[in-house]
Specification:
It is a single chain. Helix content is about 75%, strand content about 0%. The protein has 3 domains: about 120 residues, Alpha Horseshoe (Serine Threonine Protein Phosphatase 5, Tetratricopeptide repeat), CATH 1.25.40.10; about 80 residues, Serine Threonine Protein Phosphatase 5, Tetratricopeptide repeat (Alpha Horseshoe); about 70 residues, no CATH class. The two termini are about 40 Å apart. It has 16 helices and no strands. It is mainly α.
């Protein structure tokens, strides 16, 4: 207990080297939380040199003791090939270990593998089942994905109302794709009365987080003056930002709108985009 209190104090002081010196002996003696936290420090380079290989080593130690958070982190390492050879099958193995313990993030990750057919045969039924388990625990990403299952009727009866419900749950938690999807529902009047104002509101929420489809759609709304005051300059700002992130639709929209703008307006839009990037940093 005394060592744990000392560790917490060192982390609070951002004395990560000291925290590492406290964690290492505990981890070597088999303390599962110490093993996980040491792995985390190596993964993110928390006050020490980032080392994914050492991160995986300690995650494996904790995961084999049944520590759900470490099992999920080890699954992510295999999924992304960080510190180990990439393997969807091994990622699924560890996600399932953690998911079966009720760990919501792992349930979402496992559902995503079934949805994409990565490491397992594609199964929207199993994907939906895991998304539901995670969503009911409040995981925003799972709530968004569950909304998409209802929107497209994948393994569940198609329902705009249920899609709307889950998108809103995710959006209210700040999940950008959920905010974008909720904006789409309002824009198209699916499961809710059409409202350009609400569509623009949610697109803007997602756009401010760097969601490029939302940035593009928000730009279109500024072009048309739907739900927002008409402004080619603001529209171009959002198109510029989305284009910079590789959104082809935004690049095409920017090319079209710039043909009707003055040089002064184009320059202003570019300055606004640069200012947004500076503030976001």
């Amino acid at each position: 207990m005394l060592c744990l209190r000392r560790l917490v104090r060192q982390v609070a002081k951002k004395n990560y080297e000291k925290a590492k010196s406290l964690l290492e002996p505990l981890a070597k003696r088999g303390a599962v939380e110490a093993q996980f936290n040491l792995g985390l420090m190596y993964e993110v380079g928390m006050g020490i040199t980032q080392n994914h290989g050492k991160s995986v080593y300690w995650y494996q130690k904790a995961a084999r003791q049944g520590f759900a958070i470490a099992q999920n982190s080890l699954g992510l390492a295999y999924l992304n090939g960080e510190g180990t050879l990439q393997s969807y099958e091994k990622a699924v193995h560890w996600f399932e270990k953690a998911a079966q313990q009720g760990y919501a993030v792992a349930q979402y990750n496992l559902g995503s593998r079934y949805a994409k057919g990565q490491g397992v045969p594609q199964s929207h039924k199993k994907a939906t089942s895991w998304f539901k388990k995670s969503a009911h625990q409040g995981n925003a990403s799972a709530q968004n994905n569950l909304g998409a299952q209802y929107l497209f009727g994948r393994s569940v009866p198609q329902s705009y109302e249920k899609a709307m419900y889950w998108f809103e749950m995710a959006a209210q938690k700040g999940e950008p794709t959920g905010q974008y999807n909720l904006g789409d529902m309002y824009a198209q009047g699916q499961g809710v009365p059409q409202s350009h104002e609400q569509a623009a509101y949610w697109y803007k929420k997602a756009a401010q987080q760097g969601h490029t489809p939302a940035q593009n759609n928000l730009g279109v709304m500024y072009i048309k003056g739907e739900g927002v005051p008409q402004s080619q300059v603001i529209a171009a700002k959002w198109f510029i930002l989305a284009k910079m992130a590789g959104n082809d639709k935004a690049a095409n929209n920017l090319n079209r709108v710039q043909k009707t703008m003055t040089a002064t307006e184009i320059s202003k839009a570019e300055r606004l985009a640069q200012l947004w990037l500076i503030i976001r940093r």
